[in-house]
Amino acid sequence: MLTLLWGLFVLVLLTGGCAVLASGGKLHAALLPLPLLAAAALLLYGFGIAGALRIGAALVILLFIALWVVGLVRLRPAGFLKACRQTLTTPGIALFLGGAAFFWVLFFVLQPMFTQWDEFTAWGLAPKMVVEQGAFYVANPVNLKASFTYPATSLITFLFQPFGAWAEWACLAALDTLALACVAAATALPRQRWYSGVLVFAAGVLLPFFFRDPTPGAYATQYVNAMADLPMAMLFGGTLCLYLGTAGRRGVFWLTALPLALLTLTKDICFAYGLMAAFLIGLDRLVCTAGTFRRRLGQALLQAGGLAVVVVAAFVSWSCYTAAVTPTADTAASVGSEGLSYGAVLAGGVRQLLGIGRDEKFAQIMAAMGDAFFTRRICLLGGGAMAVLAITMVAAAAWLAADRGTARRSILVMHLAFAFCFAALYAFHLILYYYNFSDLEGLALKDYDRYLAPYYQAWMLTMLCRLAGAARGKLGRGALAGAVAVILAVFCWRGIPAAGFWTDADSLYTLRADVQRRAETMNTVLDWPDRVLVLSQGDDATRWYYYRYELTAQVVNGFGGFYGRLGETQDRWDSDFMNLVESENWTLYKSQAVCVPETLVAYMAEKDCDYLLIDRADDYLERSFSPLFEGGLTSDMPATLYHFEGEDAAVPFTVAAVAESGVQ
């Protein structure tokens, strides 16, 4: 309950801050939630680098309160209340606040949990560790590679959970709050055109459902996952919508830099997204700025260059921080198994694109990417070609509705620039599929829709914003209503999920809940400095990663291959989870490790392990390993945590904790 109250309290502070800043009349209130949230997250980022995240959170709240005090003093209580009423009756703010409060209350009631694989390997694990430890995970990596996850989603989560009490549902609600703030920026329209703001907000909220390849009957994870895809899409589009709302206003233009910096800190690919946003804004300034071409070019270069510097600074700061805190191979900026630098990958990829030294694998992936643009479903209408056609139709409607001259040129140039950047992004992903994926994954274009859908979402959101801004007459308003109606109709026709964020999904959490109960028992014994090896015979890695997420200890990776004789390690390799077997039998388990009692003890000592957790045993463990364990082992034993007494102990493993559970 305290987490819910705190989340709603932050929303109230944010709304009051928007009212105070909007009272001067320079900025539309709907534009303000995004830069305010971004500014709060970036302030936390600075304190996080300094190792004082909780102090940063306290300062953020004090600054919000100070903003209220300034408003009460400057406007007087009556004026402040009037400003709040005006703000709350602004469609974008009302929809943002109502939508965010809805998510917070709904998720508090339903208590949704993480369900996707990558949430347990990084994207959910990272904010969990930041909230619990009050520090960036790279300063104490524990169960997470330092360079894997960028901090933006963790920073937003920490803003709403600064006290160390972790709740997955609150993490999901916090990220949805950020997404709604981005959509609200597209609704910054004059009060008399409130209906256009409502239409754009409705369409913007539906875009994550529109740009997806739905699986019939599956649980839709839109708005209920901790992955960076939704924040990346919304921040990219929201930054451009914020720019469109501030363009031409001296000084306030630079508010765009706040969400742009946060976008850069969202994911590694967001460095490219940030530079593309700066490029798009620079081109638009070149078109829209009054004066001679030389003057327009100079101002465009200054503003776009300034934004690009912000992007580079954010990217470099995080890279330098991770390298300084954990100077290991894990923090090096490299791609693929060969560890090539980004520069080498880009140079090699461009050469192959131009046909210089192109090999068969690259040619096959190139052909697959070309075919996928037309055949691989990425939106409810079909492939990428249909998505671009739909976006182009919205852009064309915006062009027709806009005034002749600069307004039309601006829309046309921005749409064409989006298309150019998309082509570059598409080529970049082709290169990544070649260098960063196995042959099988690269040829299958693994996660193709996940990698490209965020760009389509941002592109469509920006064009809807352009259409709403241009729709002053009946024709424009009709075009906007028609575009939103089509999105809604297609969603109702093809895209309504059987289950989603609004449904109780307890059946999805059965296995997770089982591991969670067992881990709670183990955590009564464990602490973060402890090193634990986890064995779960018959596992497909699911339970191992659940334990890695749940245990308050450092989970040690296992090995694969053959380690059947002491000292002979040449035939084994590093892995994550493992199933112990007596001899190679590839039909028995996945990720097998040939291991005998002596080598298990040696491996525990080699990895400096303190504990061994046997989640599930089998006949081989019972038959061959029982003498090593206090009380022996049975194939149907409950999950048991054993303390490792050392190689020379008569009984190397003694019981530390036992957890009962009915799920196997």
Give the tags.
five-stranded mixed β-sheet; single chain; four-stranded mixed β-sheet; alpha/beta; 664 residues; 24 helices
Written description of the protein model:
By secondary structure, the chain is of the alpha/beta class. It is built from 24 helices and nine strands. The strands form two sheets. Strands 2-1-7-8-9 form a five-stranded mixed beta sheet. Strands 4-3-6-5 form a four-stranded mixed beta sheet. The chain is globular, with a radius of gyration of 27 Å.
Low-confidence stretches: none
**Rg from alpha-carbon coordinates:** 27 Å
Distance between the termini: 32 Å
Structural class: alpha/beta
Question: Kindly state the mean pLDDT as a whole number?
Answer: 91
Which strand order do you get reading across the main beta sheet? 2-1-7-8-9
Taking the sheet with the most strands, its summary is:
5 strands, mixed
How much strand? 5-15%
How many strand units?
Answer: 9
Tell me, briefly, the overall form.
globular
Question: Helicity, in percent?
Answer: 55-70%
Tally of alpha and pi helices: 24
